[in-house]
From TrEMBL:
It is found in: Membrane. Residues 1-18 form the signal peptide. Its main location: membrane. Residues 416-439, 501-543 are annotated as: Disordered. The keyword Ubl conjugation does not apply. Residues 527-543 have a biased composition (Basic and acidic residues). The chain crosses the membrane at residues 443-464. Keywords: Membrane, Signal, Transmembrane, Transmembrane helix. This is Aspartic peptidase domain-containing protein. It is a single-pass membrane protein. The keyword Signal applies. Residues 421-431 have a biased composition (Low complexity).
Length: 543
C-alpha cells in the first residue's frame, strides 16, 4: 500500500504538476552560523532539521552511508579548534535534539534504520570505524532544500573527524540513507549526486557551488565526460571509490610558458575526496617542486580553515596550475583557487581573512594516500551514480546558470524498469529545479493513471499541506554580497590568536587518519557541558 501511494505520488506529481520528481539543486554557499557572532560564515549547504526547524550547515560527504549531525556534546579537537565558540561555528551550528518534538531516539543507529556499515579503508577519518556503534541515534526530519524527509541520524559521541571537515555530514555513500529516502519518497529519480564547489575568496568571480541530486547541471560542464567505475575495494585504497591518476601537473606562468613539475614516470594515484579542505594532498616532493618552480618560500603551515596548507607572506606566484589525468581529463585551476588568503575562524566566531598572506592548497604527504579535495571542483565537475556504480568528471564551466539533467535508469518512485540515461530538454534557469520535467515517467503514468484518481486527490492534499508547512529559505550571505568580509585583514600574531603558533617552522600538523592509532578512550565523552548549555540559552541554539 505504501509503495502504491509512493508511486501515485510520483506519477501524479510529475504528470499533473510536471515538477515534483526530478533532479534538485542545492547551493553550496556562505552561511552565517551564529547570529550572535558577526561574520560567523561557513561554506556549506543550509539545511533545516527537527520540529520546529533548526538551522544547520551541512557538507556533502562522499563515502558516509549515514548522515551525522552534531549537537552540543559533539566536541571538536582542541589541537585544531581552540574554543567552544569556534567549534559551534565550524560545526555549522548545533542541533538541539531535545528541542525537537519530532526527534525519536532509538537504541542505536541500525535500529533507527541506518546503514550498518561505513567504509574504513586506510585514509578515511580515524574514528569512522566506531562511528556507528558509538553514536547517539534516532530519527528526525531533515530538509536540505527539497522538502523534509524523515531519516536515521547519528549524533557522534566520538571525536571521529578531523578539525577541518567539521560541518554536519550529509552522507552520500553507496548506501546513503538520505539518497535512499529521497528516491523512495519519489522526490528524485535516482541515487545520483553531482558537485561543483563554486569559487571563493575572490572579489571578481566568486560564486556559489551546487549539489545536484538525481542528475547533474549541464550548464556547469564543458566538453566530453570521463566515466569510470566506482571501486570501493581495499586494494584500490580509495575509500570514496573514486580513484584517478594524475599523470602530470603543469605550472602555467603568466607569460604563457608551462612547466611540468612532475618527473616522467611519476604518476600519482589519488582518491577523490570532495569534502577535504584542500586542492591536492600530494607527495611532498611535488609540493617542493612547485615551490622551486615558482620560487616561493613558505613560512610554515596553516592552522586555519585550510589546515595543513603551506603559508607564504611574500613573492606570491601569479600563474595557474593544470592537472592532466590519465583518463584524459585536463583541469586548469585559477590562481585564486589554490593560492588563497589565510582564512580562519577567530576566537569570537568571526571568519577572518588575511590578504597579506597566501595559503598554497597543497599539503605534502609522507606515505598517506593522495587526495584531490574540494578545490579541485572549482575547476572540475563531479557526478557520482550509485545506481550505475560509476563516477563521471568533466571540465567545469564556472557559471551561476543552471540547467538540470535527470540521470536515471528507472523512474521516479524506484518502480519502473528500463535502462539508459534520461536527459531533459535543455532549459536555462537560475538553479531552480522546479523547471525540470523528468522525461521517463510517461510510460508509468499510462499504465496506472486510470485507477488512481482517488489516491491522486489524497496525494494532492498531502502535497499542498507539505508546501504550506515549508519554511522560507535560510537567509544566506555570500561572499559577493558582503565583500567587507574579505577586506578586513584580521591577522594577529599567532600567540595572540591561539596562544600558540598558528604556523610552525619545519613543524607539520599531525594527521588524524585511520592509518594512525585509534583514538585514546578519553576522546569519547558523555559528560554534560554546562558552558555550552549557557551559550544555547542565550541564542536559542539557532541562528
Ligand atoms: C543499506 O542500508 C539499509 C539500511 O538503511 C539496509 O537495510 C540494507 O541492507 C543496506 N544495503 C546493502 C546493500 O547492504
Ligand atoms: C555503505 O554500505 C554498503 C552496504 O551496506 C557497504 O558495503 C559499504 O561498505 C558502505 N560504505 C561505502 C563507502 O560503500
Ligand atoms: C558520457 O559520454 C558518453 C560517450 O560520449 C555518453 O554515452 C554518455 O551519455 C555521457 N554521460 C553523461 C552523463 O553525459
Ligand atoms: C616565463 O616565466 C618563467 C618564470 O619566470 C621563465 O622561467 C620562463 O623562461 C618565461 N618564459 C618566457 C617565454 O619568457
Ligand atoms: C615573512 O615572514 C618572515 C619569517 O617569518 C619574516 O622574516 C619576514 O619579515 C616576513 N615578510 C613580510 C613581508 O612580512
Ligand atoms: C573578532 O575577532 C577578530 C580577530 O581577533 C577581530 O578582528 C574582530 O573585530 C572581532 N569581531 C568582533 C565582532 O568583535
Amino acid at each position: 500500500m505504501t509503495a502504491i501511494v509512493h508511486l501515485v505520488l510520483a506519477v501524479w506529481a510529475s504528470s499533473v504538476l510536471g515538477q515534483e520528481c526530478g533532479p534538485v539543486a542545492f547551493p553550496i554557499t556562505d552561511v552565517r552560523t551564529d547570529l550572535a557572532a558577526a561574520n560567523s560564515f561557513m561554506r556549506g549547504i543550509p539545511a533545516k532539521i527537527g520540529t520546529p526547524p533548526q538551522d544547520i550547515v551541512m557538507l556533502p560527504w562522499a563515502e558516509l552511508n549515514n548522515t551525522y549531525i552534531y549537537d552540543e556534546q559533539s566536541d571538536c579537537d582542541p589541537s585544531i579548534i581552540f574554543n567552544e565558540q569556534i567549534c559551534k561555528v565550524r560545526r555549522g551550528g548545533y542541533f538541539i535534539e531535545t528541542d525537537s518534538t519530532s526527534f525519536s531516539k532509538t537504541s542505536d543507529l541500525i535500529s533507527a534504520g541506518g546503514a550498518s556499515q561505513e567504509i574504513t579503508t586506510t585514509g578515511t577519518e580515524i574514528g569512522v570505524k566506531r562511528l556507528i556503534s558509538t553514536s547517539l541515534a534516532g530519527r528526525d526530519r531533515l530538509d536540505v532544500g527539497s522538502g523534509f524527509v524523515n531519516i536515521p541520524l547519528g549524533i557522534p559521541r566520538l571525536r571521529w573527524d578531523n578539525g577541518y571537515t567539521t560541518l554536519h555530514a550529509l552522507g552520500l555513500g553507496s548506501n546513503s540513507t538520505y539518497l535512499n529516502a529521497l528516491v523512495q519518497a519519489g522526490q528524485i529519480p535516482s541515487r545520483v549526486w553531482s558537485l561543483f564547489w563554486g569559487r571563493m575568496w575572490t572579489d571578481f568571480d566568486a560564486m556559489d557551488g551546487s549539489l545536484v541530486l538525481g542528475g547533474y547541471d549541464r550548464e556547469k560542464v564543458i566538453g566530453r565526460n570521463f566515466t569510470q567505475p566506482l571501486d570501493y575495494s581495499e586494494e584500490t585504497g580509495c575509500w570514496t571509490g573514486m580513484k584517478v591518476t594524475v599523470n602530470s601537473l603543469l605550472v602555467n606562468f603568466r607569460n604563457g610558458s608551462d612547466f611540468s613539475i612532475m618527473p616522467r614516470n611519476s604518476a600519482v594515484q589519488c582518491c577523490i575526496v570532495p569534502q577535504r579542505q584542500l586542492l591536492w594532498e600530494a607527495p611532498s616532493g611535488i609540493v617542493d617542486a612547485f615551490e622551486a618552480a615558482t620560487q616561493m618560500k613558505n613560512i610554515g603551515f596553516s592552522f586555519g580553515l585550510h589546515w595543513s596548507a603551506r603559508l607564504y607572506n611574500s613573492s606570491f606566484f601569479d600563474g595557474e596550475l593544470s592537472f592532466l589525468l590519465s583518463n584524459g581529463l585536463q583541469v586548469r585551476v585559477p590562481n585564486s583557487q589554490f593560492l588563497t588568503p589565510f582564512v580562519d575562524v577567530a576566537r569570537n566566531g568571526s571568519r577572518v581573512v588575511d590578504r597579506s598572506k597566501r595559503e598554497l592548497l597543497m599539503n605534502g604527504l609522507a606515505d598517506q594516500p593522495a587526495t584531490l579535495g574540494r578545490y579541485f571542483f572549482t575547476s572540475a565537475y563531479l557526478m557520482v551514480d550509485h545506481d550505475a556504480k560509476t563516477f563521471t568528471m568533466w571540465q567545469a564551466n564556472p557559471s551561476v546558470k543552471s540547467s538540470l539533467v535527470a540521470v536515471s535508469k528507472g523512474g521516479c518512485g524506484g518502480t519502473a524498469g528500463g535502462t539508459g540515461t534520461a536527459a531533459n530538454p535543455p532549459s536555462t534557469g537560475t538553479g531552480s529545479s522546479s523547471q525540470e520535467t523528468p522525461s521517463n515517467t510517461g510510460a508509468i503514468a499510462g499504465g496506472v493513471v486510470g485507477g488512481v484518481a482517488v489516491l491522486a486527490i489524497i496525494a494532492a492534499v498531502f502535497l499542498i499541506r507539505r508546501r504550506r508547512n515549508r519554511d522560507p529559505p535560510v537567509s544566506t550571505e555570500g561572499a559577493s554580497d558582503s565583500p567587507e568580509v574579505y577586506h578586513k585583514p584580521q591577522y594577529l600574531p599567532p600567540q595572540e590568536i591561539h596562544g600558540t603558533n598558528m604556523y610552525h617552522h619545519g613543524g607539520k600538523p599531525v594527521e588524524l587518519r585511520a592509518d594512525n592509532e585509534l583514538q585514546p578512550p578519553q576522546y569519547i565523552h558523555s559528560g554534560k557541558r554546562d558552558s555550552r548549555r549557557t551559550v544555547h540559552e542565550l541564542d536559542g541554539g539557532r541562528f
